[in-house]
């Protein structure tokens, strides 16, 4: 097939990546194309795994012909031919952990522009030399604060962490930060040699002594006298203050466990030198419109525009450079305001952004890149967005298209699908049961496709989820909650029902649910905080009652179930233990003396030596991101040949790992410890996943459902609080229906469920809705409405109400 320039289609022939079944499809360019289908049907395999991967491969070949051999090793997508494919840019939500040094300013590249503004057009103190743009970046040698190396924070110990219980004496272990065992006993002997009373409660020691013990840099050597019943002659021991010990461990210890322990005693505080900006004093002294670059970085975008717009509107002659750069900054930031991100600041660390926020920032950045003739491949751009935030996003996508680009959008939100020019529906089911193109054409034509789940939801043929709101059994009362943009908020959370917390992006939902509420209950249950950085944050609540109603807290978020390819579905759920025992119990294994450990790919004896049980090896491409290829020895099986000689019912342990949950449920039906897990995984719609699929390949939505299934499998009647952050993100409406059924079962069993949620079908079937807002950031943080879905649908001033009302009508 040669390419005819008047042909405006991308032609795909014989695509068979993952579960795709020899797909032939023609996709229009210069259009917005939605890829739809139930989760696991093959949408991403076509959009990302085939189209984007092929564009990427061609790009690599064109820029780096030498890479060809390596690329062959990595493997091209399984497709016979693609013609008419333009270069592609992927804007994916899932993969790639953001680095803690990247910020909103670096993702959007706005920081570069701002630095140029300060360097070229800032107001310098008289006599100061002009600084290069790098001097305004904490990430360069020229700019970084000398005290904190540009991090903006320094770690320091704090007395309340070093000595959690001041009623203990030193002998009783008051200084928790000191090492245990012999070293600790040694330090205590040294202290008593220094004439400090080690029997007195810590709190009754003199302040001078306490400070010295905790903070001094002195390290006197003290003769330790032999104990009465010992025959040695004593020795000299060196003193370490608690701070010196902790800092020494953090700086020098190679033991991850020791370092982790030491981190419990430090708190990160803003660097006193640069006040958290990471910059040197010379840079901080330069101003624009009276503000330093650090102050601009800390402002919300809405405030930045207010500060810079007057400069942009000055007559050109006054300061041409300042006017030009400010005008550019204002224009670019206005796009972010349009996208509902006006509450973010340039200095905000990218690790604290939600995936939806990060993706919108990248989309806005692309809009300004001036590229045309490009295919943008997007992963659920509407995920994590309130319907009110989704509309401006769609406008920006329309602008990207209008400037001559093509949009391939993997999407579950039917309101977004309706706005597409073309829809490619894949299915009918997930995994083996999917992988066919059910329909490719303008949206209206999908109505006639009987076997399409998407068609049922798009054209209103799906059974509506009927629900009569339950009555709560009491309430959890929170009074005076303050954190981020929540200020002195009071809210009642009903018990033993399903509550949806709603509101536009930045209104405070996650702050309330996954932070404040989770921390309060965790603290009440005496559990350690999940995130050690949050360990010392005060729980900013004046009064909380009703916490005693819970005996368990389950936080089901979208964080990956593991950060290495060594964790997978089977290991995470614990089901793999049962499988390994099963193999160890076979006659062959017994005859060879193989225990259960032999069947773990993490244990030396059973795993493939070449790849150390990873199943693949890293291929380094010069100048290009590294990538992976199947291990040449075990071909991805992860095990050595001897281990694979042991079979159960004709299958090796590697065969089991490559089974889908559905297949494994059949194969392991007689193994109760495994089949219970497998059944719950099927119930949340994950029957299509393979047991050995590495954790790193799973989407956030899949990870979340795996966690939920793992919970359900051990769920008993109880008084647990389940907190879920957007459980429906990444799910087709048909999968949402499955998930909701499970969540309601949890409530029927006596538990309380609280969801942060945007999906209107889900909100409509909640027992109670708490709507935060009305806007994001400072314009939000209040409870706008609370009540049954019907109550909230008619609430005045709620951004959710009009959408909910339409859904309930
Ligand atoms: P969707 O995007 O529709 O949710 P995917 O294209 O991600 O579906 O997945 C389609 C099928 O391919 C599923 O059965 C999934 O388990 C499988 N799959 C996805 N990624 C991989 C991979 N990296 N290796 C093997 N199989 C995969
Ligand atoms: P939602 O979940 O409704 O999108 P969030 O609770 O994430 O809203 O955010 C509420 C407000 O708190 C926003 O103004 C946001 O910028 C701010 N915020 C959230 N997380 C952080 C953080 N880690 N550091 C500083 N501000 C934050
Ligand atoms: Zn500093
Ligand atoms: Zn191997």
UniProtKB/TrEMBL annotation:
Main location (coarse class): cytoplasm
Alphabetical keyword list: ATP-binding, Cytoplasm, DNA damage, DNA excision, DNA repair, DNA-binding, Excision nuclease, Metal-binding, Nucleotide-binding, Repeat, Zinc, Zinc-finger
Residue stretches making up the ABC transporter domain: 471-799
One Pfam short name: UvrA_DNA-bind
Gene3D superfamilies the UniProt entry points to: ABC transporter ATPase domain-like, ABC transporter ATPase like domain, P-loop containing nucleotide triphosphate hydrolases
Cell compartment(s), UniProt: Cytoplasm
NCBIfam families membership: uvra
Family: Belongs to the ABC transporter superfamily. UvrA family.
Protein name: UvrABC system protein A
Organism the protein comes from: Nocardioides renjunii
